[in-house]
Amino acid sequence: MKPASKHISFYNESEKSEKPKAYLKPWKVMIVDDDDDVHALTRMVFRNLSFENKHLAFISAYSGKECEEMLLDHPDTAMILIDVVMEDHEAGLRTVKRIRNYLRNSMVRIIVRTGQPGHAPEENVIVDYDINDYVSKTEPFSRLLTAVITSLRSYRDLKLRKEVGLAAAMEDNLFPQSFPKYESYDFSARTQMAGQAGGDLFDIQPLDKHRSLIAIGDVSGKGLPAALYVTAVLSIIRTQIECYLDNGISDQIQPAQLMTILNRLLRKVMQKGKFVSMFICLFDSQKHELSYCCAGHCPGVVIHNDNQKEIFSTHGIVCGLCDTQFEDQIEQKTLKIQPGDYIMLCTDGMAEAENIHGKMYGEDRYYEMLTLINSPTSAENAISHIWGDVNQYMSGTEASDDRTMICLRRLEA
Description:
This protein is α+β, with helices and mostly antiparallel strands. It has 2 domains: 8-167, Rossmann fold (3-Layer(aba) Sandwich); 175-410, Phosphatase 2c, domain 1. Helix content is 34%, strand content 24%.
């Protein structure tokens, strides 16, 4: 009853139809049954099924052992339709347990199908086995269709959560885990995503024993798509820095030039309408200077030794939207860092944090809290001072946007 070779059967529409604009990988569905007729009938009844513009690709297995082998060959299988009675009366149920416990596959959705429900009562199987549905072969096609669509939707959601989790872990590893140390200076930074992955970014890259490049930015959008652009932005910045260092010309790095290169490269890869706001600084601990360039990002703030604030920024539109206009507007400025100064950079998630009434924290409160920093204190404590107030303001709500802060403090003389 088993065919000469294992195979995957792809849907092949015979009618004339519009050619799809892009290829979408089909949902892999494994049929596990020792009856050839079940395989043939399943393919026939689902031959026109499409879920989210993706058809079904069928994988045939005729025993529990063969199912395990095929699952190892096709780990991206979305769903298994498995019979209970094959080699013996419980072969299918044993296979379910091995899939979950031995193969450690918790992603694939499993629908148990049986023509002999007396051998495996539904209430027992649902409780005792990690399956997603139980369907008798005698039930109407609509019942199986509902189970299939529900299982595919569940697999899609699980897969997305897994991908977002991997992106979040990768994103965390991209951000600096430690900060450069310079005499008379103190660095700190903090970020928190609204979801598992987000669009905020920051970087602090040492150039030599006196200088570092500081970058902070916010990609439009949220979640996995934004996180992928975060990776692109950080990769571009770090690659450019490496080019300067490898050629022994790190002294020629300028924020405005780096921002221009970043914009040009992002223009080639970003989807239409997507953009990144950026603030790039070149910090020199020997000259006590901060050269900076802003592209549509939140302004920076200096809190002086007398607790007075000074807001600093430059003209410039966000990265990724245009070339000529961007380069016409971009500019660079330099400020002197005085003893006791705190340089504060952030993303808009700080001021736009909302309370339970939907009211934003606001720039005014943010600036006021900055002037209340209990100086002298560390850069980390300065961030904690603001962060804690925002958390208290948001009490009882979930964050709707990512938040990031960088603090550079010059110690008092």
